[in-house]
Design a protein that fits this description.
This protein has 65 residues and is mainly α. The chain is built from 2 helices and no strands. The chain is elongated and about 45 Å long. It starts with a helix and ends with a helix.
């Protein structure tokens, strides 16, 4: 049960982080401070980082608990 709560919390936190970053990238794109290719690249990179973070943090917590 603890593991399930930990995983859900980790993915929720990563999802909120990703939502905030995508929102900021799209705002920069709309203000024409960022090209569409850079916006897509940043979004894909941060999605990968967010998923990696969401999967590694619970493992580290459980490993060192």
């Amino acid at each position: 049960m603890e593991v399930l709560i930990l995983l859900m919390g980790s993915f929720l936190l990563s999802g909120l982080m990703l939502f905030t970053i995508v929102k900021a990238v799209m705002l920069s794109y709309r203000k024409q401070q960022l090209s569409i290719s850079n916006a897509i690249l940043i979004t894909i990179g941060m999605t990968a980082f967010s998923l990696l973070l969401a999967s590694v943090l619970p493992y580290l917590y459980l490993h060192f608990l």
